[in-house]
Amino acid sequence: MAIEEFAPAKLNLALHVTGQRPDGYHRLDSLVVFADVGDRVTVASAEALTLAVTGPEGTGLTAGRDNLVLRAARALGAGRGAAITLEKNLPVASGIGGGSADAAAALRALARHWGLPLPEAAAVLALGADVPVCLAGRPARMGGIGEMLAPLPPLPEMAVLLVNPRLEVPTPAVFRALARRENAAMEPLPATFADAGALAAWLSRQRNDLEAPAVAAAPVIAEILAAIAAAGPLLARMSGSGATCLGLFAGLGEAEAAARALAARHPGWWVRAAAILG
Asked: What is the second-level CATH architecture of the domain 154-277?
């Protein structure tokens, strides 16, 4: 039987760059959550290891050896075979962890398929800074270079509006354009958040340090943030290294109404409303 795993969008509600190690990796302090929109990975028995890419956002995504899903598969079970299908629903290189979430979903599916234990966070870090948190699949405070994961206090029910201009913003270029690499960490997390408004108020005092260099590289991001802010969210912010931006709402109905209005005004943008997974 085929095994299917969901690869949810990974959202950085805050992302502080707190330093850079001698080896070039950046130290991060980020609040990460997941949404109920994402890609899907399916694994079936096969003698050889193969990958097929489908889905509305799969055009142009190669299934060659360097694909992160195949790299993850080889790292988990070198020499083993499986037929992997990736249904791509998230835009490529969009700052919402698509590739990392896909790799993590592949690891979960293949571990079940091959009867292997899931690897530890340190073992998958070489695949990307977001792979450990995506493999865990739970809201977390992410530190170090991605390997340090701490659970969050219970989060209130909330939803997001996600908007991407269908423009790829290369992550390395955004990091290179950072004006400052030694920035303050996030404030201490409270024991609880009374509601989505309380979380948004705390987040408003945090930052995404990659937002300014990403806007410099792709000015349309500023246009997206303004459009989201006009929809009346609790918070508007870029996720990851961009170009996807998010608007935080207390309820899914509000996010869906904002998504319909924004998609009508900007038919060329990728626009989705989604609930935040607990």
From this structure: 2-Layer Sandwich (3.30)
State yes or no: pLDDT of 191 exceeds 90.
yes
- Predicted confidence at residue 98, as pLDDT, reads 83
Question: What ranges do the domains of the chain cover?
Answer: 3-144, 154-277
State the catalytic residues: 10, 130
Asked if domains 3-144 and 154-277 share a fold, the reply is no
Instruction: Report DSSP letters for 154-175, one per residue.
Output: PPPP-EEEEEE-S----HHHHH
Segment 92-124, tens digit of pLDDT: 889 998 899 999 999 999 999 999 999 998 899
Whole-angstrom distance, CA of residue 6 vs CA of residue 36: 9
Percent of the chain at pLDDT > 70 equals: 100
Assess whether the previous peptide bond of 111 is cis (omega < 30° from 0): no
CATH of 3-144, one of 3.10.129.10, 2.70.70.10, 3.30.230.10, 2.40.10.120: 3.30.230.10
Nearest to 246 by CA among 218, 217, 276: 276
Residue type, 262: L
